[in-house]
């Protein structure tokens, strides 16, 4: 099949996205690669998302989940209905460069032994003007990542992933038991079977919302769970890559206790700080704890005063 004839299934999960879903869809309709199947999964929205979607004139597949199940279940529903040669994801609040699909498909065509590719993403606040250019002409060659490479940095935007449909023959769908970190779990399971490709170009834009699940404290717990599941599947990796384990745990716990401190959740901060010191003691974790000492002392004195 000619690379321009490849059918790409675009899966867009949405929950209460009436205010921004049309912008995401427009970024799909503006793609230079035109053979697209657009599958939108409404995760039982409580706003007027459905009304907005039903007024779209362009041909789309609209799936309505009977109750709210989360992004993983919504993406899985889309995967089940997808018929494309390639599959791509776009969250309802994110945007693509106009030749994103074309570039990503061409990269996989030029490397037939690979089934999965991702690119870099820009982050902007919701409501800010987009920084994406209309089109990128000169593109770097994608680099191959090993399992260790992916483990050290598994944080890839879901909207920046594209893969051949055949990948689903050896990697199962997203884990619907995870409310967050499901993308990390998915990418690690992919990398366990085959090296993946990384394109060092910013072709997508992630718009950050304060109410996003990925911004919640609970996401760090899911991160730890995903890492532990990975290690259970790969005992030799756990034995041979101890430095990498220390680094990833240190990163997660540092971000976790910093977030707890920011939210003034001192009780959880004490608990996780102790675990962080035991699991992955590092200079920056100790520095964070030392810098937080005045706040901790004030909080302790307030508790003593109440008693």
CATH T-level fold name of the largest domain: Spore Coat Polysaccharide Biosynthesis Protein SpsA, Chain A
Number of domains: 2
Radius of gyration: 21 Å
Q: Name the average pLDDT.
A: 88
What proportion strand? 15-25%
Which terms would index this structure?
Spore Coat Polysaccharide Biosynthesis Protein SpsA, Chain A; nine-stranded mixed β-sheet; globular; 2 domains; alpha/beta
Description:
By secondary structure, the protein is of the alpha/beta class. The chain folds into two domains: 8-210, Spore Coat Polysaccharide Biosynthesis Protein SpsA, Chain A; 241-306, no CATH class. Helix content is 43%, strand content 18%. It has twelve helices and nine strands. Strands 1, 2, 3, 4, 5, 6, 7, 8 and 9 form a nine-stranded mixed sheet that branches. Strand 1, helix 1 and strand 2 form a beta-alpha-beta unit. The radius of gyration is 21 Å and the shape is globular. The mean pLDDT is 88.
């Amino acid at each position: 099949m000619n690379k321009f004839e490849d059918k790409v299934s675009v899966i867009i999960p949405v929950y209460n996205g009436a205010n921004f879903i049309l912008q995401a869809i427009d970024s799909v309709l503006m793609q230079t690669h035109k053979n697209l199947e657009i599958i939108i999964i409404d995760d039982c929205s409580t706003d007027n998302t459905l009304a907005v979607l039903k007024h779209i004139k362009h041909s789309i597949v609209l799936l309505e989940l009977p109750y709210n199940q989360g992004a993983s279940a919504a993406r899985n529903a889309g995967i089940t209905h997808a018929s494309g040669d390639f599959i791509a994801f776009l969250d309802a609040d994110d945007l693509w460069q106009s030749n994103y699909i074309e570039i990503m498909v061409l990269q996989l065509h030029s490397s037939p032994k690979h089934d999965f590719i991702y690119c870099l993403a820009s982050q902007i606040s919701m409501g800010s003007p987009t920084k994406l250019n209309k089109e990128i002409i000169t593109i770097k060659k994608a680099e191959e990542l090993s399992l260790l490479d992916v483990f050290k940095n598994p944080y890839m935007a879901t909207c920046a992933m594209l893969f051949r449909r055949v990948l689903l023959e050896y990697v199962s769908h997203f884990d619907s038991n995870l409310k967050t970190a499901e993308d990390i779990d998915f990418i690690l399971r992919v990398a366990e079977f085959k090296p993946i490709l990384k394109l060092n170009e910013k072709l997508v834009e992630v718009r950050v919302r304060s109410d996003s699940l990925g911004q919640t404290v609970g996401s760090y717990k899911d991160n730890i769970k995903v890492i532990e599941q990975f290690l259970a599947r790969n005992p030799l990796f756990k034995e041979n890559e101890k430095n990498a384990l220390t680094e990833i745990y240190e990163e997660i716990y540092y971000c976790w206790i910093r977030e707890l401190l920011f939210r003034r959740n001192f009780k959880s901060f004490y608990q996780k700080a102790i675990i962080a010191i035991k699991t992955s003691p590092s200079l920056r974790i100790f520095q964070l704890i030392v810098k937080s000492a005045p706040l901790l002392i004030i909080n302790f004195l307030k508790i003593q005063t109440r008693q």
